[in-house]
Amino acid sequence: MQNIKKGKISLSDQLMQASFLMQHNVDIPIFKVAIKGFDTHSNQENEHKDKLIELNNALAEFTQELKSNNLWDDTLIMTYSEFGRRIKENGSKGTDHGEASCMFCMGGKVKGGI
Known about the structure:
- This protein has one domain (2-107).
- The radius of gyration is 16 Å and the shape is elongated.
- The protein has 114 residues and is of the alpha+beta class.
- The strands form two sheets. Strands 1-4 form a two-stranded antiparallel ribbon. The chain has a two-stranded antiparallel sheet with strand order 2-3.
- The protein has three helices and four strands.
């Protein structure tokens, strides 16, 4: 667990560990995984692009794993950040800490839309 807290295990590997435990009916109702690198005070466009690709690929792999093991309908995935960003870009082509943020929810029983 210590390596996960320090961010040394990829998001994909963390999600695969969660999937393994879910497949083996380990009684853990909530798994928290982490991905670092979103604190972009500069070069946000490129940094976010790379991080969002990593997030997309990890979640796509995890989703497929859950579906193939009949766990998708019993799973809720939620993404969030511990702090928001300002909407306006700063002078370094990044954004500083602020109030704006977003959250994504997905799962077999999630009804999409606003």
